[in-house]
Amino acid sequence: MDSTERDEAARAFLADFRSMSTFGATTGGGVDRQAGTAADGQTRNWFRGLVEGHGFEVRYDAVGNQFALLELVPGVPYVAMGSHLDSQPLGGRFDGAYGVLAAAHAAIRLRAALADASAPAFNIAVINWFNEEGCRFKPSMMGSAVFTGKLPVEQVLATTDPRGTTVREALESIGTVGDFGLEVAAYLEIHIEQGRSLEDHGLSIGLVESTWGANKYEFVVHGEQAHTGATVIADRHDALLGASLLVAAAREIADEFSTDEHAVITSCGEFTVFPNSPVVVASRVDLLVDLRSTDHDVLAAADAELHRRVAAIEERADVSIERGAEHIWASKAYDASGMALAAAAAEELGLTYGTVRTLAGHDSTNMKDIVPTIMLFVPSVDGISHNEKELTRDEDMLAGVDLLTEVLRRVVGGDFVAGG
Amino acid sequence: MDSTERDEAARAFLADFRSMSTFGATTGGGVDRQAGTAADGQTRNWFRGLVEGHGFEVRYDAVGNQFALLELVPGVPYVAMGSHLDSQPLGGRFDGAYGVLAAAHAAIRLRAALADASAPAFNIAVINWFNEEGCRFKPSMMGSAVFTGKLPVEQVLATTDPRGTTVREALESIGTVGDFGLEVAAYLEIHIEQGRSLEDHGLSIGLVESTWGANKYEFVVHGEQAHTGATVIADRHDALLGASLLVAAAREIADEFSTDEHAVITSCGEFTVFPNSPVVVASRVDLLVDLRSTDHDVLAAADAELHRRVAAIEERADVSIERGAEHIWASKAYDASGMALAAAAAEELGLTYGTVRTLAGHDSTNMKDIVPTIMLFVPSVDGISHNEKELTRDEDMLAGVDLLTEVLRRVVGGDFVAGG
């Protein structure tokens, strides 16, 4: 591209980004597009219109993953790029959405560049994965988990939100479901960092070298419903006390088990009290606790300590604590040759870059287990994420699209995996 | 009454109690009749039909208190008895409802007994107070608070439930609202104990000598929404951690500040997390904390410790804790002459009795501040309350109705307060 074309491409990306951010927009500058809601459906339809206008064909699979297909050479396999357009409640407008739009623009730019070059080795698909966030329907990364065979589709379609609506019903209500399937040769994803390491080091691009290991547990604390006024302390089986002690213990474990080399991060994001009435001792609390670390042994030690403490808390609060579903994923590396390819592309474009680890899960966490995968980050201001104040600067978004385009060019040209 | 009449009266009470317990009945043997719901409305209409069949007239005041009036002598003042027909979600079928039905039966029995005696000094009103429980609309004891001038009616009518429905709308939807007012000369209430002291001492009747002092606080813990996976511990402002530490601190204070003579009881019954998504650090938690004690000085020391700890928790969790509305009521004695009257009545009937304090608030807690009041308890099996398993045995319920009838006879005869 010459500089006029570059300016035009940048303007087009930023204009599309602004349009996209109006769907589910919140007054605080973020978006609320939980999976399968009307706002999610509107965003998906907008995206369909956008890419169809550029000659893509749009298809859906049984779990609502949205595939935008750009066929360059009939019959050759596909390189896929993607992320997700759904959001947290009161989430930011960059998380996921940036990556989907960046992928579409990278594909559009590459097709223009290829118009007068040799035939590419691959076709291109841009995927908007269903329900990456996992707030309305659990677990997170649902669409890519089904696509990669980690979750059975029937189980996922029968999963209900807190009001009892199933995934199947939600997908039918927004009309973005089908029976499409796609064979993918390689996968690329770009995402905002949601942390501060790029910003702290003054870098434009992060090459993701591994995911952190994570152990996620659903706990149910069982107490006994009683009158808060009339029931003496000795007679109480207070589920809220038990659950609160578990939240405090999780933080203490993060503080105690982090080493100089490896941090332990613990969280509790969901915590629901029953019956939650002002004058009633809680009979039950459902909560999620997760532990993450880059190091397997550190994570295992922290995990053992958590379970030791559960027993002590049961005694202290005179409750029983049941461990329900768990999701465990080990710390796992991304493809080293993909990182080298991305580093060479960044150097060619004169972009500063470094290697990073991702604490958060992404759809590429699933995809890297089935195909060679490259994961790229752009900076997040102050590392703020899952928050309406989430921000990635225009120049960082544009640098990311430039790099993704160059990486895609190399991958489609056969530099990463052998072509069809 | 002769023994046939007594048997007939007992059967009638138990039959009415069973009918009443079908409204809002839960599968666990309790009831769910939160204030202003359809189930509350149905119970109120059933009660209206019951007492109208016995010749009472039913009226409502502006806040939905239901007055069943039994005029014995035109023009003389009223002695009121009452309690509440609303319940906790998944509450027991005795709490409140027993007292309303016992009062109606006591009035019906006394009228029959008076038929061939001298003219009584008072008429009789049975009051079903609106929203004693305070779970759907806060605060508790709402109807009696308005009646006794402690809360302004307009403020109460504008109070909303978590879905935004106002008290005014809820009352209009169930149709039990009016503009009635009543001057009351004395107030009697009978209630289940919701504790174990009567059962532990093998007593049939409790004469309530005082309320416990209670300090109730609404706290809002303000944190900052963030991604649970990607946000390092040092960057977190975790409202859920702050709120959990507050729950744990409240329990520690109960343990530390209870003395041999005076217990401190602390509770947190309502605890709501925002946005409550699995992968989001909580931005806000709303919670209620209350401290209760029979001793003013012990309560004050415990309260000071709670507020000292709030400051430490703000620092530990890097959050700010805002104190919202508070409800403070001092430990306060019931009328000593009323206790003596009830003790004499119990002796005449051969019922075992003792003095007790009430940890829980009751409508009589409000009424005793404006008129001479007598509060009676019957035993609760295992002290279980605000629970579907709440149970008071038939013989204990019947003994309570017998005693309330005898106490009413004496009060209506002018033995407690001067007649009109």
TrEMBL record, chains A, B:
Domain of life: Bacteria
Coiled coil: none
Positions that bind Zn(2+) 1: 84, 95, 191
Keyword vocabulary terms for this entry: Hydrolase, Metal-binding, Zinc
Cofactor(s) required for function per UniProt: Zn(2+)
GO molecular function, one term: metal ion binding
Cofactor binding comment, as recorded: Binds 2 Zn(2+) ions per subunit.
Xref: InterPro entries: Amidase_Cbmase, Bact_exopeptidase_dim_dom, Peptidase_M20
Amino acids binding Zn(2+) 2: 95, 133, 386
Family designation: Belongs to the peptidase M20 family.
PANTHER family per the UniProt record, alphabetical: ALLANTOATE AMIDOHYDROLASE (PTHR32494:SF5), ALLANTOATE DEIMINASE-RELATED (PTHR32494)
Protein name (record): M20 family metallo-hydrolase
